[in-house]
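Narrative summary of target 7.
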Amino acid sequence: MKSLGELRKEKGVLVAAHRGTSGGNIPPNTIAAFDLALKEGADILEMDLFKSLDGEIFVFHTGTEPAYLDRHIRIESRTSEEIRNLRLCNCDLEETFLSVNSFDEILEHYKGKCIMNLDRCINITEDVMRVVRRHNMTDQILLKSDTSEKSLKLIETFAPDVAYMPIFFMEEDTASEKIEQMNIHYVGAELVFDREDAPIVQDSYLEMMHKKNRLLWANSLVYSSRVPLAAGHSDDLSLMEDPDKGWGWLVEKGFDIIQTDWTSHLVHYLREKVL
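Modeled conformation, tokenized:
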């Protein structure tokens, strides 16, 4: 499998599909959503992992059970058998024929096909990497986390050979020097910023990271209108007003990867306007 750096040189700005492409009768974080994202041109599949009560890894964003299972439960408190018996709901809270995919199913399905960014799993890194190594797929995995001492130690201990990006929130990068001294495969960073004058999006910092061959990841997706992830240069702005002010701004700043909820639109923009 080609590395992220090789893909960047070959394809230009890379597109990460946030939980795949979902909508209508296709729930997020499913093989159906991931397959659709790849058909639309995604380079990276972002997915959320959790561990069941009896220790199996599944793909689902915990906390969204009311929206996608129509149940007020904690899915991680259920056994693997109970989880397999659940049916995911569509956007009208009607049951679909889709169930929560196990991580094993995901890896088997996408072996040799794409890069997968595993999110919300830093505290179960050991368990997750055990599954990845059983499938011999370390070259297809991208891990990200906060820069706490605990998180970095988990990466160094259980995934030193796996592509890793720290997440820098809002202000200065205070962790790169520490990470560079550790046995971590430091390939780039996810930058989260709520204003254009944040230190981590100044040209001098971005240029320094690129000189070190670090890839830069931005989020154009919108979790909440109250919490801008890229100073408002979002999917919403790109789709409803002007893509040059949203996605285009991120490209001009030098971001190498953009995570979106609207894969096909971003891919079309990059192909028609940028590449």
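The beta strands are 14-18, 44-51, 57-59, 115-119, 141-145, 163-169, 185-186, 188-192, 215-219, 257-260.
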